[in-house]
Amino acid sequence: MHTTDSTSAASAAPFQLSADRSSFDQAPLYDPSLALTGNPAYHPSAAQKVALAAVGLAALACAVAWASGSGFSGSLLAVVVLGFGGGGIAYAWLTYGRDHAGIHNHGIMFSAQQARGHFGWLWGILLTGLYVLVYWFPQYLTGLIAVFDPISNALGYPEGSRQWVMYGSFYSLAVATMGVRAFLKYRHVRYQKIRTVSVVFFQLAFGYSIPYLLVLLDQPELYLHYFWPLDYDGLWPDTFGWMPMAALIFGAAMIFIGTPVLTYFFGKRWYCSWVCGCGGLAETAGDPYRHLSDKSLRAWRIERWMIHGVLAFIILTTVLLWLSSTTDVLSPIAAGFKKWYVFFIGLMFAGVIGVGFYPIFGSRVWCRFGCPMAAILGLQQRFFSRFRITTNGGQCISCGNCSTYCEMGIDVRWYAQRGQNIVRASCVGCGVCSAVCPRGVLNLENGPRTERFGTAQNNLIEDLDILDM
Ligand code: SF4
Ligand code: SF4
């Protein structure tokens, strides 16, 4: 094949097209600049491998505790917390903190873990299996649960339900560690930094410290940042029997007054991507999988049927339970509705599928297809809110970054190309579409409700009257 002197020096190059194209012959086997996704498969440095080894050590400690059925009197707790937390944060720092700010793809489209490869499926199956065990078969997790005995003992937590201390601790550790990662990754955007601090704060304070402090004080374990209908039994008659009146009034006031008012001013983002624990996990631990959301019209259609179906289900269940508390006739029906809602929606969907399927369907499966709170907030956002994402269509280069990274499956680019405002019920206002846009096309705004649907504001170059500027 190589017939001239000019090509013989580069005879190892595989893509020689002809003898007189010697400059092409010098090209490396793979030129990353030609890849639409930015980089070839990601190869961690030696320091990153050390950080990953710390995470692996923590995972090994968990596996040993689990297999042995012993938490080794809680002596593994420090290894688990420092390994997952310290190793995870060190890895995030080495990956994002030392690199220049701005979006990096880091080869996610080539990753076996983040692109539904074999590691992604394995991780999804493992997570789903763990959730099933935590909810229904905690007896098979005895050793793992016992790792957290120092915390359970300090709280005086009852023996039979200590899996929730383990679960809450892992959950909070994941949000905190991956929150640092998200902070570093999106540190070029102030909105992202504040929002990430907010979700981590709400999880650590309202989702972990305050409930356990209440337990320590012999008070009911309250999660004050969850309201009905997400907290499905928050307005059920049974709850009125044990929950303090102040907490009940606060919860009811939030759903009937606080939520509409805040959503009017800020859109559903005030809750879904700033406060909620489910959203907090999605925005932190789920961030590596956010691009896996389905952007098709079919998925959008399914989403609207499902989420509003779940909303109807919880409203009907709540009404039936209240009616059955006054008349016995409806009791069997109400009990049936309650049982099915708790099992299929409260446990299977919100818990098992909601998190276990992150590596397969993206980080917001529950928020997008099932959460009745998101359904209510979405209706308010769509019809009564000042929130919108404005787009400067003339600047869009159709790179598709925004659509790719929208965790709610919104084809943001479609709107951007047309210069249309985005006023979608499902948008949780995470702002990542705006953060990853290389052209500054997208802006999250709260403004007057008039014209919020936007007559398409086509800032195309040919529409500008430059003599009038
Ligand atoms: S449209 Fe943008 S702000 Fe809304 S959910 Fe998608 S990425 Fe987040
Ligand atoms: S809006 Fe920005 S991120 Fe989206 S396609 Fe256009 S240039 Fe790309």
Describe the 3D structure:
The chain has 469 residues and is mostly helical. Among the domains are: 297-373, no CATH class; 384-466, Alpha-Beta Plaits. The protein contains 20 helices and two strands. A two-stranded antiparallel sheet has the order 1-2. Helix 13 (297-324) packs across helix 17. The longest helix has 28 residues, at 297-324. It is globular. The termini are far apart.
Please name the defining characteristics of this protein.
469 residues, single chain, two-stranded antiparallel sheet, binds iron/sulfur cluster, mainly alpha, Alpha-Beta Plaits, 2 strands
What is the gist of this entry?
This protein is mainly alpha-helical.
H/E series: HHHHHHHHHHHHHHHHHEHHHE
How is the largest sheet built, in terms of strand order? 1-2
CATH class of the domain at 384-466: Alpha Beta
Listed once per kind, the bound small molecules are: iron/sulfur cluster
Q: The CATH topology of the domain at 384-466, please?
A: Alpha-Beta Plaits
Net shape: globular
Beta-strand percentage?
under 5%
CATH architecture of the domain at 384-466: 2-Layer Sandwich
Total strand count, please? 2
Distance between the amino and carboxyl termini: 61 Å
Secondary structure elements and pairings:
Elements: H1 5-8, H2 22-25, H3 46-68, H4 77-97, H5 118-136, H6 142-147, H7 149-155, H8 163-185, H9 190-216, H10 245-266, H11 269-272, H12 277-284, H13 297-324, H14 331-356, H15 358-361, H16 365-369, H17 372-384, E1 387-391, H18 401-404, H19 412-418, H20 432-436, E2 442-446
Antiparallel strand pairs: 1-2
Helix pairs in contact: 3-4, 4-8, 5-14, 8-9, 8-12, 9-12, 10-17, 13-14, 13-17
The protein binds iron/sulfur cluster (2 copies).
The site of one iron/sulfur cluster has 13 residues, from helix 20.
